[in-house]
Fold this protein.
Amino acid sequence: MRIGIDLGGTKIEVVALDDSGNILFRKRIPTPRGDYEATLSAIASLVKDAEEATVQTGTVGVGIPGTLSPITGKVKNANSTWLNGQSFDADLSQLLGREVKVANDANCLAVSEAVDGAGAGTKVVFAVIIGTGCGAGIAINGQVHSGGNGVAGEWGHNPLPWQDEQDRQFLAAETCYCGLSGCTELFVSGTGFMADYYKLSGKQKDGLEIVQLALSGDKFAEIAMENYLNRLAKALAQAINMLDPDVIVLGGGMSNVDILYEQLPERIRKWVFGRECDTPIRKAIHGDSSGVRGAAWLFSS
């Protein structure tokens, strides 16, 4: 049995899978924000619940909103900041009395979709999370590719390429939490989409509301949607130019916008070197469960 943990900023989820990927147990609890020791205890409690419910022991993989530094062995780049600087995998392994594998949550999405999701049967999967923030992960032959510095796939913290005047005007009012400017996350996250609409209209709406307004003819929503499609196309073209994956899988709240799959393939071709591109753009099959399933698959068969 494989146990996966998705450690998010607001919730922690556990799933137990059999060797065929069938869900044996699933549970969510609130994340004890700001409390490292309580976070470890909460994860240990979920593992115990899964094993008691299934009457089995399992391997444990954990997806986190950050990464383990190959240099220090400690968490870095986590927006759940109480994890940063902690020896998370070692501490959790000691608490559970077994080896624990830890990976970035976007990498877990990539693994999940590579094993039995939208990227099944392909070699290289580039999986994108476009929600409150944005990030990406890479799976090669169903395994995490995190790179020598642990930051492979950190697509959201590269500058948006080929910025036009409208991009630059938007950027003047936005700064990235990472301390740098021009990051793709500012433009193509759900938060960035909402910020663009607010700047255009002066109205605060969530992402799906803006999409519906665009479909009903709201001029500001139409502009925001056009901006978003072009920005995401440019950002994905940059990833194709560097990695040329077999498939791009979208997850997160904005992945539920059907117009992305209708319009992105043609728009991307404008920016890909040579103007030829047939890379499939697919929605994550496992949806919100993909990250926690990918954590479980960190222990390969």
